[in-house]
Design a protein that fits this description.
Layout lengths: L8 H18 L8 H9 L3 H6 L1 H35 L4 H19 L23 H14 L1 H18 L2 H38 L1 H21 L1 H12 L8
Length: about 250
């Protein structure tokens, strides 16, 4: 990527991809359906209270905030570690981009329904214990979620980590994972705050889950192809030439 500053054409493009990937991770079949019961558990209330009790929803919103902080902690650490790894493998970056591009394209083909990778259809959940109803418990649950749902959100997260490794900047890499965490975490907060009003909308999303997976697959396949062919860097330079103001930002 370009190194004209923390925010430039390359980072802006990667951040947009990371945000979109985070939102799609939230909408994935193994995350969206469990959101309401998770929120109720974190708030220490029942599903009926979550639907109708304002005090319970305020308590759940606080728990959801700590949950998002927990998963963000893991993602930020992963971003810093991936950036450091990128610096170590700089001499072999071309080989890495080729391999990572192929892997991301394979993941994309899975979500598009072209091939089937059974391990991506499993959930490796970690048990956070009896931690419901407390901010600390919600934070621990967020840590467990980030680690335990890797088979589900792994392709999306792996794509973002590949971009971070390619950049090899700890600051930008950490920022990019923060954007991904925002895309995944902010919907949790929105649902916690407005669940009764969003019930119908969430039911609509569940009915279109297959289409959401296809969109995710298309994103993965396209980014993998860009990594494989060097098109990501070329598109970044095109953005910089088309919008010169990006060179002054950051």
């Amino acid at each position: 990527m370009l190194e004209t500053g923390i925010i430039d054409a390359g980072f802006a493009l990667a951040a947009l991809i990371a945000l979109f990937a985070g939102v799609l991770s939230f909408l994935s079949p193994c995350v969206l359906p469990i959101v309401p019961p998770y929120l109720a558990y974190m708030g220490g209330i029942s599903m009926s209270e979550l639907q109708g009790d304002r005090a319970g929803r305020r308590r759940t919103l606080l728990a959801a905030l700590f949950f998002v902080l927990g998963l963000s902690t893991v993602f930020l650490l992963l971003g810093a570690a991936a950036s450091a790894f990128g610096r170590m493998i700089t001499p072999w970056m071309d080989w890495f981009n080729t391999g990572a591009g192929i892997v991301v394209m394979v993941f994309g083909a899975h979500f598009l329904g072209v091939i089937t990778l059974p391990f991506l259809n499993r959930e490796a959940r970690l048990d956070a214990g009896d931690q419901g109803g407390s901010a600390f418990g919600a934070y621990i649950l967020g840590l467990a979620f980030a680690f335990g749902w890797t088979p589900c959100i792994g392709p999306q997260l792996g794509m973002i980590l590949s971009l971070v490794i390619d950049d090899a900047s700890v600051t930008r890499g950490t920022a990019l994972l923060a954007v991904y965490a925002a895309g995944l975490g902010l919907p949790f907060l929105i649902v916690a705050a407005f669940l009764p009003r969003l019930t119908g909308f969430m039911a609509l999303l569940k009915r279109h889950m297959e289409r959401i997976e296809r969109i995710m697959g298309l994103l993965l396949w396209t980014i993998g192809l860009l990594m494989l062919t060097g098109g990501f860097s070329q598109f970044s330079y095109w953005l910089l030439e088309t919008f010169p103001a990006l060179a002054l930002v950051g």
